[in-house]
């Protein structure tokens, strides 16, 4: 099987698409960056939704084709190679080797933010978004951990002929999603209308990436806060399309299958039903969504947000569920940002990782149930949970609190 090759850096005629989202219409306009990477604008501003205006589609940067041969120190041009996957013979896990990411952007100054819109009147700047403004934008990462190289087979081979050293190209895709053109904003501060556009972008990209040959799983996530290790403070997230099932997804799928075989029921549905029946860890509810602290929460702060209906992934959500999610998600983020306070009673914006646990692209979709996981490494103001010996070395987790205490605090904030 050969991985799909991204299009070359040309500027073909672009066709925008109006997503059928009821009253909350979103126009999607694709283009290509100077090195051939795909960029898509997701617009909810009326002038762009109507088609009266369009975003800038050309990229003036003198970037070379990212798949052009690379000239080495010896003066010889060689085909570009992508990141590599190596299989750990002791655990069976695939590990991506992406050494080029050592040179990625790290905490740039405000005037060199690559996710900011282009400066008005500037002929050139090394930013990723050519338009002078945008609503939501998605583009292929310039420093990807996963990348399909045209013409490169994704077959598994043995390094140096060793049976215990399987290798294969990391032929997936990594995208960046910018939630706002405002570098000082956060996902928690956008309007429900803009949050709906973000949801449409997540769903759109999930469906598109799931359809790529060789892709097994799509993971849309956000890292927020320096404590998490964020290297760009502009409000943004990422979308990874994996050419394999991640260890967590594989473990969850195994549990779901065993539960189905034992009970004939969907595990995710039974988990939500149990939380609703007992109620002590329910954080908030809406018509279509329920937020709760999971029974065996690992992290100092952890919440799951699940739809009431059995849904495998974001593309399967109805318009009503998406509209409700836009409001409920923002409400949940607002509560989380008040979980910790300073000595003066001022809220501390929560550093967190938020990720959509979606059904795999092909395997086990009937056994999966969509939910969002939000968690933080902050265990108290100015105190982090470090993954020490047994957690880092053995994946044997020890919680510094209890799920019930986490839930009680969140419930206090929703009253």
TrEMBL record:
Residues 260-414 form the Galactose-1-phosphate uridyl transferase C-terminal domain. Residues 1-24 are annotated as: Disordered. Keywords: Carbohydrate metabolism, Galactose metabolism, Metal-binding, Nucleotidyltransferase, Transferase, Zinc. GO terms for cellular component: cytoplasm. Its cofactor is Zn(2+). It comes from the Bacteria. SUPFAM superfamilies: HIT-like. PROSITE patterns: GAL_P_UDP_TRANSF_I. One of its GO terms (biological process) is galactose catabolic process via UDP-galactose, Leloir pathway. Residues 83-244 form the Galactose-1-phosphate uridyl transferase N-terminal domain. It catalyses: alpha-D-galactose 1-phosphate + UDP-alpha-D-glucose = alpha-D-glucose 1-phosphate + UDP-alpha-D-galactose. The keyword Transferase applies. Residues 1-12 have a biased composition (Pro residues). Its EC number is 2.7.7.12. GO terms for molecular function: UDP-glucose:hexose-1-phosphate uridylyltransferase activity; zinc ion binding. The active site is at residue 236. The keyword Zinc applies. Pfam families: GalP_UDP_tr_C, GalP_UDP_transf. This is Galactose-1-phosphate uridylyltransferase. The gene is galT1.
């Amino acid at each position: 099987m050969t991985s799909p090759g991204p299009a070359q850096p040309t500027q073909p005629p672009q066709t925008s698409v109006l997503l059928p989202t009821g009253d909350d219409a979103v126009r999607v306009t694709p283009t290509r960056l100077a090195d051939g990477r795909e960029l898509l604008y997701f617009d909810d501003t009326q002038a762009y939704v109507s088609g009266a205006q369009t975003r800038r589609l050309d990229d003036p940067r003198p970037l070379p084709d990212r798949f052009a041969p690379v000239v080495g120190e010896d003066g010889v041009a060689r085909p570009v190679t992508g990141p590599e996957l190596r299989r750990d013979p002791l655990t069976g896990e695939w590990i991506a080797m992406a050494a080029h990411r050592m040179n990625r952007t790290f905490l740039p100054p405000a005037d060199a933010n690559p996710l900011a819109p282009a400066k008005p009147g500037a002929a050139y700047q090394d930013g990723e978004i050519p338009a002078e403004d945008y609503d939501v934008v998605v583009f292929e990462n310039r420093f990807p951990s996963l990348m399909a190289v045209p013409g490169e087979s994704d077959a598994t081979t043995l390094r140096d002929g060793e049976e215990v050293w399987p290798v294969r190209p990391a032929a997936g895709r990594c995208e960046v999603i910018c939630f706002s053109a405002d570098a000082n904003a956060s996902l928690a501060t956008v309007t429900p209308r803009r949050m709906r556009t973000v949801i449409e972008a997540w769903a759109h990209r999930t469906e598109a990436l799931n359809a790529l040959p060789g892709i097994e799983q799509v993971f849309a996530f956000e890292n927020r806060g320096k404590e998490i290790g964020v290297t760009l403070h502009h409000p943004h997230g990422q979308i990874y399309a994996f050419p394999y099932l991640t260890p967590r997804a594989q473990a969850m799928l195994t549990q779901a299958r065993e539960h189905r075989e034992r009970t004939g029921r969907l595990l995710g549905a039974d988990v939500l039903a149990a939380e609703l029946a007992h109620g002590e860890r329910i954080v908030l509810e809406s018509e279509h969504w329920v937020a709760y602290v999971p029974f065996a929460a690992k992290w100092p702060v952890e919440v799951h947000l699940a739809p009431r209906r059995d849904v495998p992934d974001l593309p399967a959500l109805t318009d009503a569920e998406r509209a409700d999610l836009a409001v409920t998600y923002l409400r949940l983020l607002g509560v989380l940002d008040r979980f910790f306070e300073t000595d003066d009673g001022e809220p501390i914006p929560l550093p967190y990782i938020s990720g959509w646990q979606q059904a795999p692209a092909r395997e086990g979709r009937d056994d999966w149930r969509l939910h969002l996981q939000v968690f933080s490494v902050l265990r108290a103001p100015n105190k982090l949970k470090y993954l020490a010996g047994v957690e880092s070395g053995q994946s044997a987790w020890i919680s510094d609190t209890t799920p019930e205490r986490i839930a009680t605090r969140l419930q206090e904030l929703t009253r």
